[in-house]
């Protein structure tokens, strides 16, 4: 069975760990926790681990996957992602990028294949490195900045105290979305997570 590569985007270091921009990395941390693995430093400028996605207690093992977080800054994510794909001989159609999304309300998860980057520097870097936008994305809603706050400032701030209370549920949903995408396909995952 071919392995998946699931990459969660974020910025490295404790200064950024709680930022909205790091929600993709938080989702991968949840997938690693579910899989019982600790991400290890990898020569592709990333931390990575091998898991089975969506293995229910007492159930059959789910699809195999490498879960990873680039150790580069967000706007240089393309190099590590390209390196991971090559290292693991993973085709682009089995790449899932998990990232924050301003245009989706906080608490919602959406999935798609391809499309634009919407000003997201991590996605732009990946698309440029791969020479294609045609990869799967799990888009984790963080909502729009309040008032006239600049979007760049908003994504580099920690979640508000109110949002932090709901964050575990959002990370859980996004991790479920990745698992369902790998196990049941994009259409089934969209039908579940795009329901009103």
Automatic annotation (TrEMBL):
The active site is at residue 21. InterPro entries: Pept_tRNA_hydro (IPR001328), Pept_tRNA_hydro_CS (IPR018171), Pept_tRNA_hydro_sf (IPR036416). Its EC number is 3.1.1.29. GO terms for cellular component: cytoplasm. PROSITE patterns: PEPT_TRNA_HYDROL_2. TRNA binds at residues 16, 73, 75, 121. GO terms for biological process: protein quality control for misfolded or incompletely synthesized proteins; rescue of stalled ribosome. CDD domains: PTH. One of its GO terms (molecular function) is tRNA binding. It catalyses: an N-acyl-L-alpha-aminoacyl-tRNA + H2O = an N-acyl-L-amino acid + a tRNA + H(+). The record marks 100 as: Stabilizes the basic form of H active site to accept a proton. Monomer. PANTHER family: PEPTIDYL-TRNA HYDROLASE. Catalyzes the release of premature peptidyl moieties from peptidyl-tRNA molecules trapped in stalled 50S ribosomal subunits, and thus maintains levels of free tRNAs and 50S ribosomes. Hydrolyzes ribosome-free peptidyl-tRNAs (with 1 or more amino acids incorporated), which drop off the ribosome during protein synthesis, or as a result of ribosome stalling. Belongs to the PTH family. This is Peptidyl-tRNA hydrolase. The lineage of its organism: Bacteria, Bacillati, Actinomycetota, Actinomycetes, Micrococcales.
């Amino acid at each position: 069975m071919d392995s998946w590569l699931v990459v969660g985007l974020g910025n490295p270091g404790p200064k950024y760990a709680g930022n909205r921009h790091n929600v993709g990395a938080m989702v991968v941390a949840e997938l690693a926790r579910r899989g019982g693995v600790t991400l290890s430093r990898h020569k592709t400028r990333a931390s990575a681990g091998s898991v089975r996605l969506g293995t229910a207690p007492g159930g059959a093992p789910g699809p195999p996957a490498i879960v990873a977080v680039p150790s580069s800054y967000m706007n240089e994510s393309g190099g590590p992602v390209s390196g991971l794909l090559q290292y693991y001989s993973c085709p682009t159609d089995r790449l899932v990028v998990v990232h924050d999304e301003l245009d989706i309300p906080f608490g919602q998860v959406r999935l798609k294949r391809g499309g634009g980057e919407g000003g997201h520097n991590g996605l732009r870097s990946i698309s440029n490195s791969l020479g294609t936008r045609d990869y799967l994305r799990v888009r984790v809603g963080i909502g729009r900045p309040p008032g006239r706050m600049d979007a760049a400032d908003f994504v580099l701030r920690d979640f508000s105290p109110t949002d932090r209370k709901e964050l575990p549920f959002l990370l859980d949903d996004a991790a479920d979305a990745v698992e369902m995408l790998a196990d049941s396909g994009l259409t089934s995952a969209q039908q579940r997570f795009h329901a009103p």
